[in-house]
Amino acid sequence: MKVKTIIFDLDGVIVHTDKFHYLAWEKICEEEGLLFDESINHQLRGVSRRESLDLILKYNQKELKDIKKDELLEKKNNLYKESLNHLTKNDLSNDILDTLLELKKRGYLIAIGSSSKNTKFILEKLEIINLFDAISDGTNISRSKPDPEVFLYISNILNQSNETCLVVEDANAGIEAAKRVKMIAVGIGDSVSEEIADYKIKNISNIIQLLELINNN
Ligand code: G6P
Ligand code: MG
Question: Membrane-spanning residues where (predicted)?
Answer without folding.
Answer: none
